[in-house]
Design brief:
With 338 residues, the protein is of the alpha+beta class. The chain folds into three domains: 157 residues, Winged helix-like DNA-binding domain superfamily/Winged helix DNA-binding domain (Arc Repressor Mutant, subunit A, Orthogonal Bundle); 59 residues, Orthogonal Bundle (Arc Repressor Mutant, subunit A); 97 residues, no CATH class. The protein has 16 helices and 13 strands. A five-stranded mixed β-sheet has the order 9-10-11-12-13. β5 and β6 form a beta hairpin. The longest helix is centred in the C-terminal third of the chain and has 18 residues. It starts with a helix and ends with a strand.
Length: 338
């Protein structure tokens, strides 16, 4: 499955950690890391800040309108943080002018830092991150290809060959249609939380979809599904190695259906939104894992919450092999309970 199809199908995939973000696409598509990065080079998908104040993969043609539609509420709430960093409205405007003049081609983060300093804008601490992020959220900038291990930044209008122009209503319909179709069953709170919007925004968007949404009452909650959603192929014993900040958990306001309360502290130590990579068995989080580079191979250290069945163990071995194919490296699975 092409990277663009995965990204468009889910609407967006959280990707503030680069290797986690590309594996979010790889685990759903069967593509290799090189193939996902080729989709970036071909300008089909990009990383930018469309919502929730964090980085996501989105279809390149949708990047600008998604930022313009969804990021404003986050921008409006940044005043206290900008004040802490002594970032003024004048500096934000001047940084935007500098970016417009100099970022017709991708520029690495260190070079952007130097660029701001050369134009009299203090780039120290978190200031550069927030100045760049602000202009990504407005739809001016996005990320280009990596420069070595460094992210690059570039004008959307220079990097993306075609940006769709949509009305507010069309944008709302599109983004919520994709979300409910790919993530459902969901609640209205899930919809609002995913776009960092209000319940009013969520309900307005759902009303625009009208007959495409099916509502069902279960356990005192109203669950929403899409009439055209493709039923998941339930396979007993199915095992997935999912990355940090994956849509499987981050795509929902409430995660109690897939992450039992007794395991939350192991997946989110400190409950601070720093998620661990997860092992998912039969649609439920059943452990965590880490990746370590050892010479020319990758060691996957699995930490299941309970002893794995023989079927789940075989599934974990297959998922580890798939991760190795994605990376183009040999993998060695080590299970903590062995």
């Amino acid at each position: 499955m092409p990277a663009l199809e995965v990204t468009r199908g889910l609407g967006a995939l959280q990707a503030q950690d680069y290797m986690s973000g590309v594996w979010s696409i790889g685990v759903r598509s069967g593509l290799t890391l090189a193939e996902v990065e080729q989709a970036v080079a071909d300008r089909q998908i990009v990383r930018t800040w469309p919502m929730r104040g964090t980085i996501h993969w989105v279809p390149a043609e949708d990047a600008r309108w998604m930022c313009e539609l969804l990021a404003r509420r986050v921008i409006d709430g940044m005043g206290p943080r900008y004040a802490q960093l002594e970032i003024t409205a004048d500096e934000i405007e001047r940084a935007g002018m500098v970016f417009e003049e100099h970022l017709q081609e991708p520029m690495s983060r260190p070079d952007v830092l130097a660029l701001l300093a050369d134009h009299g804008i203090d780039p120290s601490g978190q200031r550069t991150y927030h100045l760049v992020g602000h202009h990504c959220m407005t739809g001016m900038l996005c990320q280009g290809q990596l420069a070595g291990r460094q992210p690059t930044f570039v004008l959307i209008d220079s990097w993306i060959p075609h940006s769709r122009n949509v009305s507010r209503e069309e944008g709302m319909r599109t983004v919520i249609d994709r979300y409910v179709r790919s993530h459902g069953p969901v609640t209205e709170r899930d919809v609002a939380g995913w776009v960092a919007g209000t319940l009013g925004f969520a309900r307005e968007a759902l009303e625009l979809l009208c007959d495409a949404i099916v509502r069902e009452q279960v356990d005192g909650r109203t669950w929403l599904t899409h009439v055209d959603a493709t039923p998941g192929a339930a396979r007993r014993g199915a095992v997935h190695l999912l990355p940090q900040w994956d849509e499987f958990l981050l795509g929902y306001k409430s995660r109690d259906v897939t992450l039992p309360d007794e395991h939350v502290a192991r997946v989110v130590p400190g409950r601070n939104m720093v998620f661990q990579p997860t092992i998912v068995v039969d649609g439920e989080v059943a452990g965590t894992w880490t990746r370590n580079q050892v010479k020319d191979s990758v060691v996957v250290q699995a930490r299941p919450f309970t002893r794995l069945t023989a079927t789940a163990r075989r599934g974990l071995e297959a998922s580890t092999a798939a991760y190795g194919r994605f990376l183009g490296q040999e993998t060695d699975l080590r299970i903590e309970d062995d």
